[in-house]
Amino acid sequence: LQGALVVDALDIWRGRLAALPETEPMAWLARVGPTFLDFALEEPRLFEAAFLLRAGAARRYPDDFREGRSPPVSLMNAHVARAQAAGLIDPSVPAEEVSLSIWAMGQGLVSLWRAGRFTDETAFRQVYARALERTLSAFSNPEPKS
């Protein structure tokens, strides 16, 4: 039962990612963070099921992500790869590591929010947005294509 709950919640999360409009890859990746945050705040029980419950059906790094067994991560990896091909993200970093870092940053801050470590939602959203920007910037290609 718990495994099915996790799979259903992740499918809803995948649907939110799939609904993001196709744009330049860095713009798409920048939208992932706010979309993740909205999912966590609007659907706290689904967020818990998708990202906090242990389940045998949950995908695991690195093999499941590299093999494309996680539809949400596969979507992110595809956009990271597009950004790498365009010279926007350092191609020496595996796409799944970039995706995992973006996800981990978001999940970590959401966990702090849920634990009451921020005094108000506005301040939390501002810190979250700046952290996402810094995370994406950390992977920017030091020598972009001309």
Topology record:
Blueprint: H1 2-18, H2 25-42, H3 44-51, H4 63-66, H5 71-85, H6 95-114, H7 121-138
Helix pairs in contact: 1-3, 2-3, 2-5, 2-6, 2-7, 5-6, 6-7
Explain this structure:
- By secondary structure, this protein is an all-alpha fold.
- It has seven helices and no strands.
- The longest helix has 20 residues.
The proportion of residues forming helix, as a percent range, comes to: 55-70%
Major sheet, described briefly?
Answer: none
Kindly report how far apart the N and C termini lie. Answer: 52 Å
User: How large is the share of residues in beta strands?
Assistant: under 5%
| CA-based shape | globular
Poorly predicted sequence stretches spanning 5 or more consecutive residues: none
Judged by helices, strands and strand pairing, the structural class is mainly alpha
Order of helices and strands: HHHHHHH
Mean pLDDT: 89
Total of helices: 7
What's the alpha carbon Rg, rounded to whole Å? 15 Å
Number of strands: 0
